[in-house]
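Hey, resending since the last one bounced:
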Amino acid sequence: QGLKTHKKEILNLNQEIARLFRRAYKYLFAANLFLEEVRSYYNETGTLNTGSFNRAVLAMVHQKFSGKTRQTDTPKIRHLFGTANAPDGTISYLDAFVNHLKKRYIRNGDDGTGKTTLVRRIMEAAQMRGFDVEAYHCALDPDRIEHLVIPCLDIAVVNSVEPHYYKPQSSDTVVDTMTWVVELADENIAAERNMARQLYRRCMEEATEFLGRAKKAHDEIEAYYVPNMDFTAIEARRQKVLGEVLKLTGKIDGK
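The structure tokens again:
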């Protein structure tokens, strides 16, 4: 009965949340377009020395896998996210999944200088050599793999790039992909790239603002629901479902 008296307010808030999320997603989409524009300049201007880059990648692959025993003939890939676009901004969990590893290879450098390509090639090399990997995708562009963990070898390849920078530890190997780049000599092109980056940042700020407003509206809905919820009954149902799941997995009664 308590919820019925607030039906109109709840429906209006649901509509507002949907509207705010639509706006947030549009700004995230635009942010990715501008970031892709930033990445494009190095290839379009020929300032990325692809020959030197490819040789460096081959050397890294040899260094990481030379003499290592094959883990399996059927290597698997776990696809995960290490970051999230949230109401409080971009949240990174890089520390949680790489800090405990013995070796980390940190990639620094501007967008478009080969960091993601390097990670992908190392992942492919690991798979061909029979190693399971954990591939951490970009929250803004899920098709891009930003970070890689090879559990069997106890190593990670991490892209330290806006907005999820990673502070290297003393034992880490840091590679700056700007090593393979000749700085843009054309001031007009450099200005275009910088403008694209500014627009990317502005779109991310706007997206975060809309996500924050959506979260606030969701909290208002919860304020209507919480006083009318039977948490004791919910917990009882949760325990019942958990018990059924555990039985199915053979963790109860020795099955």
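The chain has two domains: 4-28+187-230, 52-180.

Sorry for the duplicate.
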